Each structure stands twice: as C-alpha cells, then as structure tokens.
Amino acid sequence: MCSSFKERGARYAMVMLTPEQKRKGVVAASLGNHAQAVAYHGFLLGIPVTVVMPIIAPIMKVQKCREYNANVIMEGKNMAEAKKLAISLSRKNEWTYINGYDHPQIIAGQGTVGLEILEQVEDVDAVVVPTGGGGLLAGVAVAVKTLNPSIKIIGVESERCASYANAIKNGKPISTAIEGTLADGLAVPMIGYNAWETSKHLVDKMVTVKEEWIAVAILRLIENEKCVVEGAGACGLAAILAGQLDEFKGKRVVLLLTGGNMDTTILGRCLERGLAADGRLVKCKVTVSDRPGGISELCKLIGSIGVSIKDVIHERAWVASDVFSVEN
C-alpha cells in the first residue's frame, strides 16, 4: 500500500508497542516513505499518528499521510530540523518516537527483506542496498550474513548525501552536508548509531553514485522494465550502469528497488536528465538569419539526419551579431 520497504519496520515497531503507548500515540519524522508507512499502519492498528515532514517533502507523500488520517506537521528545511521537532513533541506529549532508520525494531523489520531474498533466490553472490540512514542496510546485512556469510553486502548512496561513506572515513557517524538529490529518500544527514554499529563489520563495500547515473537508472527501469522507481531505489542499478560494480559481472546480484513513490512533478525532469546523461537529448546553440525561412532551413537540416527537435528557443535581444540574426 505504501510502495516502499518502510512498511516492514513500521508495522513491526508499532505492533510491539505496549497498550499504553498505543493509546497515547506515536510521532515520526520523515521525508515521506517512513511517514506514509507509520501513518498507514497507525490507521490499521488504531494508533494516533503525528508525522513531521520538512517543507521539501514531495507533496504526493504528504497527501498520502493525510489520507491515512495522520496529523501532518510541515516544519523544517531538512530532515535534521524535522527530527528535532518530532523528538520535542514526543517528550512534550508522551508520544513514542519511532526513528525511521535507527529504531532497533525498525532495523529488525527491514531485515525481513534479506530473509525473503534468500528464500526466493538461489545462489546469490551479492545484495546491493540503497543506503540513507542505514536501517535497511543493517537489517539486510544481519539477515543475509547470518544465513550465508559468503554473500557480499554492497551499500549505495548518492554522492550528494554520502552519510555512510563519511562514517566509514571518520570511523563513526558524522553530520554530513546534504545537497539536493534525485535520491531524496536517502537524504539523511547522519547514519543512525544503531544502524552503524550493527552494519559496519558486515558491509563489504560502499559506493557513491553520481546524480546523472541515478537519472539514467530511472529511465532504464521505465523503458526496459516498465517500472517506476524513485531515485533512492534506483541507486543500485545506477552503480552498475556507472561501472562501479564491475567485479560482479557474470554474478547473481540482487538489486533492492526500495520504493516507487516518485513525485509526478519530478518524474518528467528525471527522464529528461536521464536522456541527456545517456546522450539521447542534446543542446546546441546556433545563429541563423532572422529573415523568413531562416528557422525553416535549420529545421530541415536537422530533420535530414533523423533528429527530432524537442524545443526551439529564440534569442534576439542578447545576440552579439547583427540585428538580422537570431540565436537558437
């Protein structure tokens, strides 16, 4: 129902609450997927839910939370500010705060992904896990390595929110500057301490991918698999397309497509970015005559080599040449 793996941990954490905690309610901070999961299962279990979402959260995810009767508070420029308010509200109102990636029961619930992989897929060589706060990575790593230590666990994150890579570099979770990223679900400024301590000795490799490869991965999944996957979920494929996991060529590798909650206002831009990164959408600047037929001749020339024109933008005011020319 929530189109992401976050349901697993949210359900388990909420089922394990005491009757008194269920009566008082829970609060969570999230960019969207965890908020949706807590709101949905709170609705099913009859538990009052408040979610704090930063103002950059996709409107689609905000609306879904409201549809599940959650009290939605839009506050904070980023996850760190939203989390701070959520913790403050939990103390003030005696609500249970459910961390979306570092709560022990959240990590345990996410780990069921690893169990299902081993039940359903034979001879797995590696599992590639998109990594934000680290909860999914930790849960999957424990489940998989416990049952089959030979399987490699690979974490993947965007270079614009490389919290786990920075934790590895510094030997501990450390606050990381977050830039705008297509993988908004991974935009967590610091890996959770529980997730870090659980996973640090089990992860075989951590890869950071460039934004253009995430866009190409989203494009490939739509074109080839007819599957809409949000940027966070496409990071594993992005790493493969970028050649960052070439050591696994010919191996059986499981990619976790962790969510499909792609904001429709962003999807079009992602596809265009993917086409551009793939060399299938190009931009050129030419100067032609501004007299009748000038643009027509240009279009005929481009069409003669089998190229489709997406947009033509005329610029007259800032052209450095004569007034009888136009820049396109």
Automatic annotation (TrEMBL):
Q: Where are the transmembrane segments?
A: 38-57
Instruction: Offer one example of a GO biological process linked to this entry.
Output: isoleucine biosynthetic process
Q: Which UniProt keywords apply?
A: Lyase, Membrane, Pyridoxal phosphate, Transmembrane, Transmembrane helix
Q: Which cofactor does it need?
A: pyridoxal 5'-phosphate
Query: Could you tell me which residue ranges the Tryptophan synthase beta chain-like PALP domain spans?
Result: 3-259
Q: Record's Pfam families? A: PALP
GO molecular function terms here? L-serine ammonia-lyase activity; threonine deaminase activity
* Family that this chain belongs to: Belongs to the serine/threonine dehydratase family.
Name this polypeptide is given: L-serine deaminase
Origin species, per record, is: Callosobruchus maculatus
